[in-house]
Amino acid sequence: MGETMAAEELPDHSLYRQPDGSSRPVPPPAGYTVEDFFTLDLPPHTELIDGSPVLVSPQRKFHTLAMYLLEQGLRQHVPNGLRVRREMAVVLSKRNAPEPDLLVVTAAADGDQRTTRYQAADVLLAVEVVSPESEDRDRGTKPHKYAAAGIKHFWLVEMTGERDRPMVITYELDPVNKTYVSTGVHHDRLKLSAPYDIDIDLTAIDEL
Question: Hey, how many other C-beta atoms are within 10 angstroms of the C-beta on 70?
């Protein structure tokens, strides 16, 4: 019998009331572990950061369109041994399971249709589209944790310019220091040879 505590077994003091009358769990003093986290009844796309659940706010249209554009571009030439996924949890450590907007994982680790999470070692690329409510996490907390966990490639996507188009800043892992090094800033076209051959017209967001 494992020691994981299901949501319905949490003591009363571990819940707090929301304005809509619903209840949300309050993490224990040491924070939730990943295994605890996946037993909780939480809203979709809730992330675990440093042992605390982080709820996701409603997103702008830009966020949806940028994700779609990049997902389609990643899928266009993805090698047979890799898979493109969106909004899936990645286990980085005992108390961290964020949910990148997009990720590229190995086919061997993709699992079956019941898969709910991936391990950091199986992720080749993590992508975050910056939102107003999550700027600090998207630009600082999450890439720092992705690098520490050894994810080789990271993209940060910002809305810029008069036409609110995506700017993609690409990073590659320095394996010695476990930090990301910028490999380019891309405005109209994202053309790369790593993690594999990719060519995306970023201006095409105007037509979506």
Answer: 25
